[in-house]
């Protein structure tokens, strides 16, 4: 087998990073033009890709190694000025493959290890090996979800996976529609678009002036993408006018709170409003028998956003918009561009999903998710979710009565979000008031900056309403353990002690 | 070096695809739970990833091998029923790593080789090895373009690359703004949104009712995404009312035609309209000194869509929206979500681009493009584009007077699009008229169906206006040569001869 022969050739030199040097191919003389499809390009192509994989697997190994830093922080101007051997500027002339490999190594070196067990900064964390393999394959296949013709397997995987997700939501027989979109904000935008189309289909051709002035309802803590969608789609964000759409958030960004879907659904049914559930963050809990009750009533929604790239640990990006009514996504978005979607093909063209989307070509986001589902089974996702929630419970119990901590909201968190202030010793006896508020507001940013400079861990902070900056801890990383939670708390105290 | 030791261990068994079997790790007993971050997960992880890479590199090698088929066509119901050993259904229980590898292999087996030298079906074709390596790295880094905090290197790469693109467009000092979006349709939608914001900023908060009834102008052959954006954003597609926005297409989807940008810009200046240039397909020609005159006047546009994933051979997805006026993208889309974009960070937060986008997290589409630019240099892109256009000229000259061919439009193609009817011998003496039209309409679909069944090549067809189905040949694949063009023509004649 040729591949293996290459590997063998590579190995005998002992050090993969200097392969080309020890080899008659002379990497420093080689350029992209020497790779496939160039004549005799096969050997350098395989060697180049193996060197890249060497860099990547080293990175992966270190990502899970707690003695490695989460990041090696530099300011924008530092990176722009150029680090030794790493220059971001583009030039007119080609670089050698040797330099390209250096560029790859340095890009990872100055980046952030989002899969590190101590990276807690975002809702999307972790590095799932199966999901990663799925992404490598997806890139290699290099196609899009435009038609069955050019993505037969991926189109069917998407269809089956969306059906399974609708079954889990609880729609009868998993009927309905949906697609994977470039993130929760776009999924939410889809929900607003189809709601408008459902009640005022003439808007599609006549514009917003064909409808009365419409209004969208959403809670104060809901994600800003609902407001963005409203602005983009021409609703504005004024109060008043005719109600059209209600968004219930299942897992808010900061608090991880769940709106009472059943209560909201009652109102929507009474007044004939579109009910959307934004489960971008909380949707994953549907996979857990222990936690899915938090989304009770989700089966009454007209549409649901659910991002497997958040709580389910799927690599970015992977967000689904799920719609209960079949055909409406097509009705809303199709422009019947016959020059793109030919009706006279030899296969069943209902599998050509391109015209349902607002995108034309749509990135293949399904494969990694499908592959992870195969590898973990439904039970594997359940275990992942239960474990993350247990960890956040551990954190909550650890700090709720610990000296120097104040919880931002009372009671156990519903999701993995644990929101808290750390009060440095110097402030613990300060009376409540503006001065204390002002000082406290600066504590989290200062600790965070020191964390990033030292590169040991990362956790988010933000203000919310009249609440000054507080830490928001979230757990979606399957690599995190109790020891990492302990480490985070120790680190906050170490860095914040003298503030 | 440990990696190399693994490689070596792998090699000595001779056949990488049965590694685990010959190895005490016993792949068939291993599951995703045994991989990192599991205890002792490092060795199985590295072995698993190398097996995946083995599958991928084999696929890549075959992609460039003309004796390999472009596709192995199956109908949806066949794939859904399950091919031997390949079952698309998701189950509750986990599958072994051995099965996961089989799933990977089969996913590729039943897909379409979009990098094959004889795949001409889409505007995006080819498999660039450097771009692919860039995608593998991007997946491994698994972050998004939300903030500098979590994607420092990628954020700066995007900024520098967009600036370079604006320089090439011809905006003074490359000033302006922009971002990479999930495809040309979304880039075009951005252009409509910011144009509306520019002239009627109150729409953002008050909705479309705050503006007069607005209208967008675009040519009949422009991409349907402009109409989709109009519908989505609440414009409708009615005639009349106040003109706001003019789209000039640089490279239409079917004909590859270029609108006269300077003439349109004159009108836009006179009437104070927003000029958008949709260069999703034709933007790449800006890299070529020989062909950039076709976009003459592009520097007068207010915004430009330009998809490196089309004519520049960058892997999917990679589309830029470029905006001449600085700050307007931010003004249009920002919702100032302080809980997501904290102003009190230790670094210069103008690098946090998240709030400029309608997405929240934004996929990292920049790295592969940046890396390709490094590897090829500006001159490398120029060569690629000139070569593709030469090839299409070769095709045009080959068939324009060849018996059995009729060109759909007269004169040399402006882009790589060559549109033609193939007339089977049995129809060559038929008089013009409805019967001939009806028969001709069925020729391209029949040939295409046979092509797909035999898997030898793929080229698109479509009707346009009152023109019956014709072939649209496009060339963006750097692997294609004159012999592949000859092959396509031979294949059309072989399959269509007896129709």
From TrEMBL, chains A, B:
Alphabetical list of InterPro entries matching this protein: PyrdxlP-dep_de-COase, PyrdxlP-dep_Trfase, PyrdxlP-dep_Trfase_major, Pyridoxal-P_BS
EC annotation from Swiss-Prot or TrEMBL: 4.1.1.15
GO cellular component: cytoplasm; presynaptic active zone
Needed cofactors: pyridoxal 5'-phosphate
CDD domains: DOPA_deC_like
Classification via Pfam families: Pyridoxal_deC (PF00282)
Molecular-function annotations in GO: glutamate decarboxylase activity; pyridoxal phosphate binding
Keyword vocabulary terms for this entry: Decarboxylase, Lyase, Neurotransmitter biosynthesis, Phosphoprotein, Pyridoxal phosphate
Signal sequence residues: none
Biological process according to GO: gamma-aminobutyric acid biosynthetic process
Catalytic EC class: lyase
Annotated PROSITE patterns: DDC_GAD_HDC_YDC (PS00392)
Modified-residue entries (N6-(pyridoxal phosphate)lysine), positions: 310
Catalysed reaction, written as an equation: L-glutamate + H(+) = 4-aminobutanoate + CO2
PANTHER family to which the protein is assigned, alphabetical: GLUTAMATE DECARBOXYLASE 1, GLUTAMATE DECARBOXYLASE-RELATED
Subunit details: Homodimer.
Family of the protein in this entry: Belongs to the group II decarboxylase family.
Function field: Catalyzes the synthesis of the inhibitory neurotransmitter gamma-aminobutyric acid (GABA) with pyridoxal 5'-phosphate as cofactor.
Name assigned to this protein: Glutamate decarboxylase 1
């Amino acid at each position: 087998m040729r591949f293996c022969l290459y590997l063998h050739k590579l190995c005998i030199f002992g050090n993969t990073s200097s392969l080309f040097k020890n080899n008659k191919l002379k990497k420093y003389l080689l350029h992209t033009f020497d790779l496939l499809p160039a004549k005799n390009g096969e050997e350098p192509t395989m060697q180049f890709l193996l060197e890249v994989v060497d860099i990547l697997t080293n990175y992966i190994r270190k990502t899970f190694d707690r003695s490695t830093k989460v990041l090696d922080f530099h300011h924008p101007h530092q990176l722009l000025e150029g680090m030794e051997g790493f220059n971001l500027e583009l030039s007119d002339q080609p670089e050698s493959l040797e330099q390209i490999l250096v560029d790859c190594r340095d890009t990872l070196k100055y980046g952030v290890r989002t899969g590190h067990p101590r990276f807690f900064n975002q809702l999307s964390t972790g590095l799932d090996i199966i999901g990663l393999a799925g992404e490598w394959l997806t890139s290699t296949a290099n196609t899009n979800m435009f038609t069955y013709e050019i993505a037969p397997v991926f189109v069917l995987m998407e269809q089956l996976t969306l059906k399974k997700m609708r079954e889990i939501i609880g729609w009868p027989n998993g009927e309905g529609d949906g697609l994977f979109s470039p993130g929760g904000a776009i999924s939410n935008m889809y929900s607003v678009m189809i709601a408008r189309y459902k009640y005022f289909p003439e808007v599609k051709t006549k514009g917003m002036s064909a409808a009365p002035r419409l209004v969208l309802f959403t809670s104060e803590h809901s994600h800003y993408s609902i407001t963005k969608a409203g602005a983009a789609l021409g609703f504005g964000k004024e109060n008043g006018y005719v109600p059209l759409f209600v968004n219930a958030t299942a897992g808010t960004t900061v608090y991880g709170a769940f709106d009472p879907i059943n209560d909201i659904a009652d109102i929507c049914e009474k007044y004939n409003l579109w009910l959307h559930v934004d489960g971008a963050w909380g949707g994953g809990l549907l996979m857990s028998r222990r936690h899915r009750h938090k989304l009770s009533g989700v089966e009454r929604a007209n549409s649901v956003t659910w991002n497997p790239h958040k709580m389910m640990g799927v690599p970015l990006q992977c967000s689904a918009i799920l719609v209960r009514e079949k055909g409406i996504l097509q009705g809303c978005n199709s422009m019947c561009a016959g020059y793109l979607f030919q009706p006279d093909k030899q296969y069943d063209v209902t599998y050509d999903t391109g015209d349902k989307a607002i995108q034309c070509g749509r990135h293949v986001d399904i494969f990694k998710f499908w592959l992870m589902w195969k590898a973990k089974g439904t039970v594997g996702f359940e275990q992942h979710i239960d474990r993350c929630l247990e960890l956040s419970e551990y954190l909550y119990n650890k700090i709720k009565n610990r000296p120097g901590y104040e919880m931002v909201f009372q009671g156990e968190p519903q999701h993995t979000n644990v929101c808290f202030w750390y009060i440095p010793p110097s402030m613990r006896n300060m009376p409540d008031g503006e001065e204390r508020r002002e000082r406290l507001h600066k504590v989290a940013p200062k600790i965070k900056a020191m964390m990033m400079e030292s590169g040991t861990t990362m956790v988010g902070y933000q203000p919310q309403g009249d609440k000054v900056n507080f830490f928001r801890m979230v757990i979606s990383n399957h690599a995190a353990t109790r020891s990492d939670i302990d480490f985070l708390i120790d680190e906050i105290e170490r860095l914040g002690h003298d503030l």
